[in-house]
Amino acid sequence: MEKVLSKIIEERMKSWELDSTSKKPTTPKGNPFPVITISREFGALGAALAAHMSEKIGFKMWDKDILQAISDKLGSDRKFLEALDESRRETIEDVVVGFMKKTSTNSGYIRTLNQVVRTVEAHGNSIIVGRGSNYICTNPKAFHVRLVSPLKTRTEHIAAKQGMSKADAQSMINKTDDERAEFVQYYFKKDVTNASDYDLVLNSGVYSLEQMMEIVKVAYEKKTGFKLPMQS
User: Fold this and answer.
1) Backbone angles phi, psi at 79, to 5 degrees
2) What letter would DSSP give residue 228?
3) What is the pLDDT of residue 105?
4) What is the 3-state secondary structure (H, E, C) of 98-166?
5) CA angle 27, 139, 111 (to 5 degrees)
6) Average pLDDT by consecutive 10-residue portion of the chain (232 residues)?
7) Quick count: other Cβ atoms within 10 Å of Cβ 218?
8) Cα separation of 151 and 157, whole Å?
9) Backbone angles phi, psi at 231, to 5 degrees
10) Three-state SS string across 36-90, please?
11) Torsional class of 131: left (φ above 0), alpha (ψ -120 to 50), beta (otherwise)
12) φ, ψ for residue 67 (rounded to 5)?
């Protein structure tokens, strides 16, 4: 089963490489760049930083692609997986839903998530967004970042982005943050807010995406010994 999963990820990686050959970072054969994981408060621009860095250094960004890889392996409805993603259902509901819809349950999702993340980690040259990936990776040189930002700043950002009231935006932020924290606590027995679980914690309310990328680049190179390539 793991070989099948690895083949799926390899095919996706090869497809990405064909589309971005000029941007793919070059490392000694068999020695890929360690992955970067990005944990984030909702609205703190974690995915935006991952996308910005992916563009500038040529790393593959894994966000919703992780769901697609899991869906490919499980043969599941992606919409159902999105409902499970970074949240948790009560056990009885999980069993009933899995039985009635003949699709994956939380246990299948989390088991496959672990396999996907570790396969991506083995290939390296990637940025993985959320999903407790910093607790799944096993390479001691993997670099783990967490983005935070004041609630007021995040509320204004989400309200503008989603075209909703600030009250609704704050409610969405609180709900999403709670679900992500519960996901990490339930499956990894960790507190997602514990700063010592990360190599670097950044306040996106203070720094721009470009500034955060520069900070991550310096810290990553100090920890891993790999010099990141920068695209013009």
Assistant:
1) -65, -35
2) P
3) 53
4) HHHHCCCCHHHHHHHHHHHHHHHHHHCCEEEECCCHHHHCCCCCCEEEEEECCHHHHHHHHHHHHCCCH
5) 120
6) 54 52 52 94 96 94 78 59 52 41 59 86 93 94 98 96 95 92 90 97 97 97 92 65
7) 12
8) 10
9) -85, 145
10) EEEEECCCCCHHHHHHHHHHHHCCEEECHHHHHHHHHHHCCCHHHHHHHCCCCCC
11) left
12) -60, -40
Decide which of 1.10.10.10, 3.40.50.300, 3.40.50.2000, 3.30.360.10 is the CATH code for 2-16+33-220.
Answer: 3.40.50.300
DSSP per residue over 4-30, as a string? HHHHHHHHHHHHHHHHSGGGPPP-STT
Structure tokens at 37: 């994981």
Asked whether the beta carbons of 136 and 118 are under 8 A apart, the reply is yes
Nearest to 153 by CA among 41, 43, 46: 43
Q: What pLDDT score does 30 carry?
A: 62
Of 212, 218, 231, which is closest to residue 49 (Cα–Cα)?
212
* pLDDT tens by residue, 126-139: 999 998 999 999 99
pLDDT at 131: 87
- Global model pTM greater than 0.85: no
d(CA 99, CA 33): 41
The answer to whether 132 and 146 are in contact (CB under 8 A) is no
DSSP for residue 208:
-
